[in-house]
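Supplementary notes for students who missed Thursday's class. We covered one full example, reproduced here. Read the sequence, then the structure, then the short commentary at the end.
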Amino acid sequence: MSDRIVYSTDPDWGKPGTPRQPEPLRLSFRRGAKGSGVTCLERLVMHPTLKDQMLARLKRQLGCGGALKDGTFEFQGDHRDKLEKLLLADGYKIKRIGG
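Structure (token representation):
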């Protein structure tokens, strides 16, 4: 038999808590056509309103511009090191992609 719980009479079982991040966030850097670069943060699982709030906070802390495109955070410039420190302090796991 499987150990998977199908039904429980425990009233506290399965209550939603803080949603877990299923996999590490991907942090990368891409160069544009004109030589300018963009730091990208992908695979962040949270409500869209909270993503907008987090984007505003990170832009303020990094001191740069940025946007949210198709669920990916894009920050103007190379901010991988600073962004990694900020996200690790918030408890996220980070996987650096590329250089």
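Commentary. The chain has two helices and five strands. Helices lie at 48-62, 80-89. If anything here is unclear, bring it to office hours.
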